[in-house]
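Give me structure tokens for this 172-residue protein.
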Amino acid sequence: MRILSVDPSLRGTGYAILEESGSRIRCLEYSVIRNPPKLSQEACLIAIHAALEASIIKYNPVALSIEKVIFVQSYATAIVLGAARGVAVLAAAQKGLSIHEYPPKRVKQAVVGRGAASKDQVAFMIRALLGLTETPPSDAADAIAIGLTHLRTMASPLANKSVLTNRSTKNK
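Here you go.
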């Protein structure tokens, strides 16, 4: 199974393509979509959508795993984050990927073992778990962690797919 995994942000959206084959998980690609501060919000959203769409076309994943909406102290931040998240979901939905959401604490728990882990701890564990030669940037590491959480959840014998947040967009 091949998945696209996204940690959304207007200025630094992390994403990764993970592939599971048997008990082996490989990271085929990871990166951060960096948008400069002077770029308008609209241009940032277009750039995020275009980059994710290109990755979907290149790798043909079957699912998107994405960070669930979190509590933020500022309504303005929540709206901007929601917009970035929305274009990621749109890019996946347009290509028929199923959508799976995971809260940040659950992702940290799944990868590091504690829900209050720092970004550095997550990045370190991603490098160790996947045997990477370099530590990914924190936004990309977070995206990889979200993907690992999804793959582990799907592989669990206790996984009840009706309990998971799964918004299938396939209209066949």
